[in-house]
Amino acid sequence: MSMDFNDYKQYLAPAYSKSTDLIMQSGKGMYLTDVNGKRYIDWVQGIAVNALGHCHPRVIAAAKEQIDRLVTASFNVVSYPTTLELARRIAEVTPGDLDSILFSNGGAEATDAAIKAARVITGRPNVIAFKGSFHGRTMGAASITASNSFYRKGLEPMMGGVFFAPYPSRDLCPEGYDAKERAQWCLGEIKKMFTYYVPPQDTACIYVEPVQGEGGYVVPDPSFLQGLREICDTYGIMLCFDEIQAGYGRTGKMFAGMHAGVVPDLMTMGKAIAGGFPMSALVGRPEDMAKWMPGQHGGTFGGNPVAGAAGLAVLDEFKEKDIVGNAAKVGDYFKGRLLDLQKKYPFIADVRGVGMMLAIELGEKDGKSGAELFSAICAKGIEKGLLLLGCGVHHNAIRFAAPLNSTTAEIDEGLAVFDSILSEL
Asked: What is the chain's Cα-based Rg?
């Protein structure tokens, strides 16, 4: 069936930010096929949602079986075997004693839940978040988002009690600092905030991405998260990790904070946990989560049994096929190939990331900015059948969100197309 997006555009709110006009008919593994029958290598994967690729047979079978039984009856009213079992299984893989789980539908909902939880648990109002952060587009989540001022345009006044500290990325720290120096400088800036304008005794939480996503796939030195843990312990502040994009195996460990050996007090997850179905979660220690009164938070669709069944299938596949280990191994290979491309194409200014959470930053070439190169590369990618997505405040970086079960042969297939695109520049 042939369709043209422009025939339907009038029925969609312009707030939808469409990076392409493509209409997709089907997907399998790392591939998408549009309504005209053209196949694309998809290295966006729903923005890191499809950890096992499109329509993984195990996930689809589990969801179909559950659909035949029950679609929803509201987790506020009744419980479901799939969702209950998923809660238990997630508690088995979370760090420390983060064993109490609240399900919702998307990352922004989980963010809002985490902010509310931190305030309820501590009795304090303030939130410290980071420049370059992205936590979602609901009012609470957008209030602690600072990856681009556009997300806040026209929305003020937003949620109060939010203060931003610098994240240890190159563009936010003094020039010439290495990763460890950037981490220490940023920790020092938080301590200055406490001295000048944010009383630590009024601070409910420090809210941070262990690896920054939308902000540019920035991997901080481990000492940064370790230092945040020390600060929070000193002042009784809750440390909240946003693992929505970086978690669930994407970095080669189940959760990105594990690279630094740091256990947060609250943690959000989403995107990959239900194999493509809308689901997210907030996890915390049982004694902390018990401080919420019943009914203080919830949602009609959170904890859906179909998403729960899909989530169980994802964890089964992770365990049996060592998907997290594969992400670490294939991610190392992928990064090595990107570094080879950097040697070949000097306008690749940086290669960064960990596991299968990888990005390149584009510099200037022949008078064109990195942002202009990014646009040209993505347009040429659509032409050649490779879907890519950007990141970074300057729109000059490309993130790669290939499935975590990718083989090196599949990485080579995609990079061959990518190489041909770069060569035409």
From this structure: 21
Tens digit of pLDDT for each residue in 205-231? 999 999 999 999 999 999 999 999 999
pLDDT tens string 99-108: 999 999 999 9
- Residue 240 in this model has a pLDDT that exceeds 70: yes
pLDDT tens digits, residue range 175-184? 999 999 999 9
Lookup result for tokens 């942002």: 371
What CATH number matches the domain at 58-321, 3.30.390.30, 3.90.640.20, 3.40.640.10, 3.40.50.10190?
3.40.640.10
In the beta sheet, which residues pair with residue 351?
A: 360
- The three-class DSSP label of residue 353 is strand
Per the CB < 8 A criterion, the answer to whether 400 and 415 are in contact is no
Phi, psi (deg, nearest 5) at residue 268 = -105, 145
At residue 18 the predicted structure's pLDDT band, cuts being 50, 70 and 90, is confident
Q: What is the distance between the alpha carbons of residues 224 and 90, in angstroms, rounded to a whole number?
A: 26
For 114-138, how does the pLDDT look when each residue is reduced to its tens digit (9 = 90+)? 999 999 999 999 999 999 999 999 9
Can you give the residue ranges of every domain in the chain?
A: 5-56+322-424, 58-321
Token pair, residue 296, equals 């203080």
What is the 8-class DSSP label of residue 54? B
CB 160 within 8 A of CB 139: no
Residue predicted with more confidence, 413 or 294: 413
Beta strands per DSSP E along 112-262: 126-130, 162-165, 203-208, 238-242
Query: Nearest-CA neighbor of 133 among 159, 168, 161?
Result: 168
Burial track 206-233 (b if 16+ CB lie within 10 A, e otherwise):
bbbbbbbbbbbbbbbbbbbbebbbebbe
What pTM was estimated for this model as a whole? Answer: 0.96
pLDDT at 1 exceeding the cut of 70: no
Residue type, 341: L
Beta strand extents in 232-308 (DSSP E only)? 238-242, 266-269, 280-284
The CATH fold assigned to 5-56+322-424 is: Aspartate Aminotransferase, domain 1 (3.90.1150)
Residue 347: exposure state from Cβ atoms within 10 A (0-12, 13-18, ≥19): middle
On the CB side of 229, CA atoms within 13 Å amount to 16
Q: With a cut of 90, say whether residue 296 has pLDDT above it.
A: no
Contact in structure between 216 and 249 (CB atoms under 8 Å): no
| Residue % of the chain over a pLDDT of 90 | 93
